[in-house]
TrEMBL record:
Assigned keywords, A-Z: Membrane, Transmembrane, Transmembrane helix
SUPFAM superfamilies: MFS general substrate transporter (SSF103473)
Subcellular location: Cell membrane
Protein name: Major facilitator superfamily MFS_1
Annotated TM spans: 34-52, 72-91, 103-122, 163-184, 190-214, 260-279, 299-319, 328-348, 354-379, 432-453
Domain Major facilitator superfamily (MFS) profile span(s) in chain numbering: 29-458
GO cellular component, one term: plasma membrane
InterPro entries: MFS, MFS_dom, MFS_trans_sf, OPA_Antiporter, Sugar_P_transporter
Entry GO MF terms: glucose 6-phosphate:phosphate antiporter activity
Entry membrane topology: Multi-pass membrane protein
Length: 482
């Protein structure tokens, strides 16, 4: 175990005498190496995650799994993904998170191949799928927080929103490729068998993980460089300065458990995930079974959603940077607007209208989902990025993802009686959209509350910088040399 932990250590290089101005000029080139691993590697996670969504109609038709069973399998992933991020994230903080991501991608690929073999040799794979898909969730759980940790160590605050937002596009790139790759692989190499939906993406993802282990650096100190705040002439955050000698447990207590902004972000993340996953998880099945779309037309609805999400990921982080790092306020705008294309989608009957509605849903909902993650790491020091980022993600996946998969799956299942909530009967696809509208409203209220806390924190950091100039020693050199 000790050698395993050592393999994932951050190894600082001897402090170099490279001038700050030279570090700044070389920063983008060195960061892009690491950034490429984070984008391509995390996109690989989605090759091994979104393939299940595209495989659902085939698991139903070829193996007889019901909508409720498919939702339960998805809930197993959500449960381990949520709690696993907290548990494994505590280990990952302070370690080489770029290497951890790469190693977990390789392991996820091995599990995906195991799922394919299980489907090929087992007549009743339901129990095995719950176990193996839950294991996939555990292995992928620290992926997003680890990426955020690496980017947090590489970027100053004034550029962080755009780079994390652009990285978030890896979700969409991986998800867009996943459905088409899985379906093509199944038809080309497995005669249309659902086995190919898992094996083919794994054979693509595993080499990506191996490459990611060796390419790029996890932290500028591995080059002997200064912190990004020093390189770019930016004051350090108060939390980073005052917690340099504080334990992880104390940081978790002071900056998470006792912080009301984090809990509002947790609730907002649940709401945002209900909307995102509620659309994302069921759009193929909904358009195929309810609207009568063909296999390829239904699978391609994922591409429309993810293209919108891709553009949203590229834009929303940049918008928040332009608003002075006000992530929660920017996220609230996106969540308020997303109800419009959801309403259009709920009443659409043609592929053109469905694709257009899904495009705008993706563009608007990926903003809040991305920005909630950026907002939460702003409330905590860099030494606890993974754990702190994992808390709202845990809520999002354990509660939001499970509501979107299990609850909405039960509501939509024609073989079930639906649910009775506060005297209202929820049954059928129409009722699933009601849940999405309510979720968007709850998330909006929470994000407005967080925006107030965030404004107070931004002003407090400015005051701290003025009162403790020693905390920013060394940043003045070349500070105006952008």
């Amino acid at each position: 175990m000790g050698s395993l932990k050592t393999a994932f250590n951050i190894v600082p290089a001897p402090k170099s005498d490279i001038p700050i101005t030279t570090q700044r000029k070389r920063w983008l080139r060195e960061f892009m190496k690491t950034y490429a691993v984070l984008i391509i590697g995390y996109g690989g996670f989605y090759l091994l995650r979104t393939n299940f969504k595209s495989a659902q109609p085939f698991l139903r038709d070829q193996l007889g799994l019901t909508t409720t069973q498919l939702g339960t399998i998805g809930f197993g992933f959500s449960l381990t993904y949520g709690f696993g991020g907290l548990i494994l994230g505590f280990f990952a903080d302070g370690h080489n998170t770029k290497k951890i991501i790469s190693a977990l991608l390789i392991a996820s690929g091995v599990v995906a191949i195991t799922i394919g073999i299980t489907l090929a040799v087992t007549h009743n794979p339901y129990g095995y799928l719950i176990l193996l898909w839950s294991l996939t969730g555990l292995l992928q759980s620290p992926g997003g927080p680890c990426c955020n940790s690496t980017m947090n160590r590489w970027t100053p605050r004034k550029y962080r929103g755009r780079f994390i937002g652009w990285w978030n596009a890896s979700h969409n790139l991986g998800a867009m490729a996943a459905g088409a790759l899985a379906l093509w692989g199944a038809n080309t190499f497995f005669h249309g068998s659902v086995v190919g939906f898992f094996v083919v993406p794994a054979l693509v993802a595993i080499p990506i993980g191996i490459w990611g282990l060796f390419f790029g650096k996890d932290d500028p100190i591995e080059l002997g460089w200064d912190k990004p705040e020093v390189i770019f002439g930016e004051p350090q955050a108060k939390a980073d300065v005052v917690t340099q000698q504080v334990s992880k447990g104390r940081i978790l207590m002071d900056y998470v458990v006792k912080n009301p902004a984090i809990w509002f972000l947790c609730i907002a993340n649940v709401a945002a995930y209900v909307v995102r996953i509620g659309i994302d998880n069921w759009n193929v099945l909904y358009t195929k079974s309810e609207l009568g779309f063909s296999d390829y037309t239904a699978v391609n609805t994922t591409i429309a959603l993810e293209i919108g999400g891709l553009l949203g990921s590229l834009c929303w982080g940049f918008f928040s940077d332009r608003l002075g790092g006000r992530r929660a306020l920017t996220a609230a705008i996106g969540l308020a607007l997303v109800v419009v294309p959801i309403f259009v989608y709920a009443h659409a009957t043609t592929p053109t209208v469905v694709y257009a509605a899904l495009f705008f849903i993706g563009f608007l909902i990926f903003g809040p989902v991305t920005l909630i993650g950026i907002s939460v790491i702003g409330f905590a020091p860099k030494t606890a990025t993974v754990v702190v980022n994992a808390v709202p993600r845990a809520f999002g996946y354990v509660f939001g993802d499970s509501i979107a998969k299990v609850l909405l799956g039960r509501i939509a299942d024609p073989k079930k009686q639906g649910l009775e909530i506060f005297g209202h009967s929820l049954h059928g696809w129409g009722s699933t959209f009601t849940v999405l509208f309510v979720s968007a409203g709850v998330g909006l209220v929470c994000l407005v509350a967080v925006a107030l806390f965030e404004e107070r924190m931004i002003r407090a950091d400015r005051e701290f910088s003025k009162e403790h100039p020693a905390a920013d020693a060394g940043i003045s050199e070349g500070a105006d040399d952008e």
